[in-house]
Amino acid sequence: MFRSLTPLIPYHARFFKRTRKYNIHFRFVSQKFPNLEKIFSRGWHGGKRAPGAKGSVRSEPAARRRVSRGNQAIVSYVLKDKVVWITGASSGIGWACVEAFVAAGARVAASARRTDRLSELAGQLGRNRVAPVPLDVTDADGRRAAHDEIRAALGAVDVLINNAGWAGFGRVVAQPSADLRRMIELNVLAPVELARIVLPDMLSRRHGQVINIASVVGYQSIPRMTVYSATKAFLLSFSTGLRMEIAGSGVDVISVAPGSTRTPFFENASNVNVRPVRLARTQYSPQHVARAVVRASRARRREVILSAEGITIAGIRRLSHRLADAIMLRFARFAMPEAGDTGS
Question: Is 228 a catalytic residue?
Fold first, then answer.
């Protein structure tokens, strides 16, 4: 019976066994699913050749890696003097990404609504490396104007990092419609439209990257963050579909899914009673996430999950929806026992 579930094993599940840290999580899953190790060692089809297949038996992940290399030469992406456009750059992951990409030699256009923070950032890192471009990413005319400003000041955009985002906490039935609309406009529509703005230039030059900052909750929704989780799931799906649409064009589409990160994301959430001491065990710094984004850009990765817990829950989700739901429900009760019903 378990062999019939083998096609559901996610591509990234192979990362379970990469390090000792991941081995801990892999052993936990193996206790629940004793045949998991056997399936991994025998390949995607449980050691049997797929129907109609010829030649030797190979695992599906290996086949995917071989196809990707056949479509496009895997050459590291050089960031020196590249023009990188980062949204949501006034704090947290966005701020750290500006610092990391400047350190990598890139020229950065930093966008956010808070002009004072952008000026402070440019003053710290040097205005010859950071161009502050004030922007509300939900403003359609503002997006076009910001892109034109960047082209005039720095040149064509080589890398777009869709980092700006917002979350509202609370039960779906109790959240204000305005908060739900804002989440969807900021987390869904804005990244799509920004990608549509920069892609024509990238495709004509056969060169560039679109990096979408998603979240591990995009793989498995969490109660009281239901709509936010759904927007991040959209961003992951959008990245996958767009990547296939432009395959072979020389343009990379990368999704990065951080876990819990020490940013103002929760600090500003006055409406939700988060237990930060308990969350701190698994929280990462914005600098850790930013370094991972730079590595993903250089390595031209397709999909990155930045926590062992995230990798585990994403894998468990494919194997057992019921188990994944139970884990995330327990986490919500543990870390957010009394969520409010307004945005943050």
Answer: yes
